[in-house]
# Entry
Amino acid sequence: MTKKTINIVLIVIVLAIWGKISYSFFVAPKVKDKDVPINYPVQVKQQKAKKPFRLKDVYRDPFLGVLVKHVVKLKTTTQAKQDIHKAKSKLSLPKMKYYGYVKNKRTGKTLLMIKINGKMERVHLRTHYKGIFFKRIVKDTLFVSFDKKNIKLYIH
# Structure
């Protein structure tokens, strides 16, 4: 067979396949799911009422075979508040490098590109991110506030 006859045969086969698919999709009558009436009586099984029970909180170490009882100690709220204040005061300034910004023409929002602790982040201007507030941009300088401190970052 020549190349021309092979191409014609293949085109006819492809057209036949696509014709079958389009016929079954567009022309063939579609069967719709209808509710079938039930002609026989339906028997419903009644479930027995089950008694509630409590689970015991027992943990057994599978390797040692020792039962361990969990003891919960409640802390007073004043200690928790003091811990929060200590944690806030111990915040250290993360390492930041400012790489520039991109301004969206449609919305007018400014997207900053900053490396914080070695991880590249994209943050919008005038937003908070991990305790850092990005205030404003002047040419190649970014003004940032962190823990009530004002910081200037220059482009790298």
